[in-house]
Amino acid sequence: MLNYELTEEQKEIRELCRRLAEEKIKPYSQEWDEANKMPEEVFKVFAQSDLFSLCIPEEYGGMGGGLLDLCIATEEISRIDGGVAASYAASFLGMFPILLFGTEEQKKKYLPRLAAGESIAAFGLTEPEAGSDAAAVKTTARKEGKFYILNGTKHFITNGGVADIYTIIAVTDKKRGPRGMSAFIVEKGTEGFEFGKKEDKMGIRASATRELIFNEARVPDENLLGGREGSGFIVTMKTFDQSRPGVAAQAVGIAQGALEMAAKYAHQREQFGRKISSFQGIQWMLADMAAKIEAARALVYAVARMVDRGGKNSGPASAAAKLFASDTAMEVATQAVQIFGGYGYMKEYGIEKFMRDAKITQIYEGTNQIQKEIIALDLIKRYTK
Amino acid sequence: MRIIVSIKQVPDTTEVRVDPETNTLIREGVESIINPFDMYAIEEAVRLKEKHGAETIVITMGPPQAESALREALALGIDKAIHITDRAFAGSDTWATSYILAQAIKKIGEYDLIICGKQASDGDTAQVGPGMAAHLDLPQIAYVKKIEEISQEKKMIVAERLVEDGFETLKAPLPCLITVVKEINEPRLPSLRGKMRAKKAEIVKWNKDAIGVEEDKIGLRGSPTQVVKIFTPPQKKGGEIWQGEPEELGARLAKELKKYL
Amino acid sequence: MSTLRVIKEKCAGCGICVKVCPVSAITMVEKKAVINLDKCTLCGACISACKFDAIVREKEEKARRQDVSAYKGVWVFAEQREGKIAPVVYELLAKARQLADDLGTYVGAVFLGYNIKETAKELIWRGTDKVFLVEDEKLANYVAESYSRTIIHLVNKYKPEIFLAGATSCGRSLISRIAVKLYTGLTADCTGLDIDRERRILIQTRPAFGGNIMAQIISPDFRPQMATVRHKVMPEAKADRSRQGEIITEKVEKSLVESAVEFLRFVKEEGSGVNLAEADIIVSGGRGLGKPENFSLIRELAEVLGGAVGASRAAVDAGWIPYSHQVGQTGRTVCPKIYIACGISGQIQHLVGMQSSKIIVAINKDPDAPIFKVASYGLVGDLFKIIPVLIKNLKEAGIK
């Protein structure tokens, strides 16, 4: 509906991603969902089209550009399959810590590989006992000579097992609480680093979610992110600030895909001698869905632009975007299934997948409850002076 | 190694439909695309570039809007583009078209391989590729489904050619012209960098004087064939539509089919 | 330079030409059609569509003319592989006979190969008056250059006015090369060939734009008038073993049969079942099958009917069945007696490949599927339920 004043490059990104999604993802989306399969071959196509080089500066082999570019790409892919988009976006989640906090050597070593799509990344924070309570991380990292020895388990990690490069948050100094956590770059194949079972998820099944198991894992000390202990917490917070608009964009895409399917269906389905799209009740449902999606999109793009322009304190805006967009996606997807009626409940028609995919956007990368915390705390800070 | 790819911009026939009132084809708002078979030609050229470091050039003969097809090819990885365009070329049939393209290729000079798509989806004749080979006196292998081997030092190419009931393997010296079929590869999507590069690229334009053609061999004037009439074929009338229980439908159809068996 | 012109006084401003133009070269300016000559490809679709004859082609004299009166005879390229004549040749001979009779001339066949002399009489049985036979080891397998040079030599020697060939992998690539070398007109994939008796020329009718339009083409000033025809488009000539004709063994110079291209080998396609191109009955499956395993249903029905298995592009792209089974614009064109489309929506690219089938049956649960517009019998329903019932009934009726 709105004109977002995208640059030529951003329009090209949208067009390319849409084409890629329609041609290379749509025909197989249902099959991957059923088989719980992450389609590694599709990521080769992403790589070849330079889609992994977004946000990474040119000096490290990327195309430069900013968060809005990534949001557009993620949104277009989500419109067709939220699961493929989840894996795509999660690689950036694993990449941002290195981009934002890595030493020059670390950036030179890992970013070019990621930009070329030769490897994908993952972010390892969440543990069985540390979900919303990110500070409750128990994975430890003790220094031994030129290595850090990691012990512990991460779970629910998107791209777990498939990624080559993992940014892991572990405790280096228990006594210092949240400031005692550090970030490490751990490569697949590191001695003592293994993968646990692949999760059987409700949705986004085209992305692989696994446990990461560290059992006396030997990580070279040059992989301590930023070369400094104690930055784990800030790395996490700043990384999520960058990635949150991406999740919001995923939600917008899922909602958009669901809306389009529902509108098309409403125009084909006839009951009581007329197309159901001629009933005001359906029209109003579609209108509400469309308006909310537009609002979500506008908010996401505005936040992405703010981050790209170096806006200060983008955290709460970012949280608002994620909160609103994900709630919108869930609502729109549910309404879309409703518009499909009985057919909506049948897997064959594909719309129920959007509802299953939408749900995760309200949960991961900070549950919506945590998002509300962020927004509320900022409000209170601002208005109690 | 230098490879020339010859492409054509065509209307997207998947969008075309017939107006039931006037019984004419409606092409309003129909997009122009690169001829589908030419996408495979472009992809093969890019693969050869990646494998052998070949220099790739894409050419097309077409009106000014055909430039966008050339830019699309550049976005896919082709190095250079040449737009052969002149109002005098309009109306050329396949003889004149292959003549003009051959003249342009002569002007390019040295090359090892010319790759064309098997046929264009608007004309569907599959004549221009072999026609070019004839004008240039080149060996040709048509309907190539796989390049088994190609060597600039040995100046030869071995290719598998698709025939009705299998395939033939042929060996030809370079330079040579091949036309390719869909089985040969899976065309890639453009890359973002490619698209940016293509946008800024300078495309060489050659008109009839630039390439040097004999006036009486181009355009309608030079074409041995002429179109005297275009009409829409009578729409195949739909027959009967049956609805009902599967048991009923299956039995009824079996009975009908039996009449023809 | 040729051009198209709008006669303003005749233009009624109806706008049909705007819609019909394939390159969007026409716009309405103050209710009159204006042609943008930069975009115009001179295809003439607007001329045909205009009900008011308001668009004319400014004719230009053809640059070259040949003395066409010296050319007589209707020739057919008798394609063969390993001594066996391609079935399309018999269809061409039937048409050649008709054309020759209309013109009052003879039917010739060009037969190239090695150790094929015994087979030449089959051409005579099917209607050839004179077989021009060239045998050489180097002609044993089709290679474009040697076949091209040899045929050009014969054409220049005997001057046939019409030359027909099958639109096969060999025929199309060979004849295109010959037509250019001879500087003559060639029309590919003709669905209609007739004689304009007044002008004594060949009228060639063929589809374009994926079969959405038909074009009528002539090449009055050039000889021979060349055309290719696809297999199963025209009827076959019957064999009359009592028929008499001449076999003229032509000796050609060694240089003609030399070729820089070397034929290495032919590999026959491994494929079970009936060849799609030859099949009289085809059962095709599309996206509606849902998964690859369900092609077994299509195969079963095909087997019961003694037919071949086809597929839509969607099924092939999804990897459910090999490309060799694909019917459509970028696949095979087929013309069977019966075509049964199961779970195929009937997009134009598919229709293009099968719409000339005699009987089309469509089974699809979507009543709005475009395939129903061309189906002789359209069954709206669940193919998974209907096909087993159909198979059962066919078996009970004693079919296969």
Q: Beta-sheet strand percentage of chain B?
A: 25-35%
What's the Cα radius of gyration of chain B? 22 Å
Tell me the CATH topology of the largest domain in chain A. Butyryl-CoA Dehydrogenase, subunit A, domain 3
Largest interface: B-C, 105 and 119 residues
Give me the count of strands of chain B.
Answer: 15
**Assembly context of the chains:** heterotrimer
Beta strand count of chain A = 9
Shape of chain B: globular
Question: Low-confidence parts of chain A, pLDDT < 50 over ≥5 residues?
Answer: none
Work out the helix count of chain B: 8
**What is the name of the CATH architecture of chain B?**
3-Layer(aba) Sandwich
Number of helices of chain A: 12
- Across the major sheet of chain A, the strand order is 2-3-7-6
Q: Tell me the distance between the termini of chain A.
A: 40 Å
Tell me the name of the CATH homologous superfamily of the largest domain in chain A. Butyryl-CoA Dehydrogenase, subunit A, domain 3
The H-level CATH homologous superfamily of chain B, spelled out, is HUPs
Gyration radius from CA atoms of chain A, angstroms: 21 Å
Spatial separation of the terminal alpha carbons of chain B? 57 Å
Helix content class of chain A? 40-55%
The string of secondary-structure elements of chain A, in order, is: HHHHHHEEEEEEEHEEHHHHH
Anisotropy-based shape of chain A: globular
Which features characterize this protein?
heterotrimer; A: 385 residues; alpha+beta; Butyryl-Coa Dehydrogenase, subunit A, domain 1; Butyryl-CoA Dehydrogenase, subunit A, domain 2; Butyryl-CoA Dehydrogenase, subunit A, domain 3; 3 domains; 4-stranded antiparallel β-sheet; 3-stranded mixed β-sheet; 9 strands; 53% helix; globular; B: 261 residues; alpha/beta; Rossmann fold; 9-stranded mixed β-sheet; two-stranded antiparallel ribbon; 8 helices; 31% strand
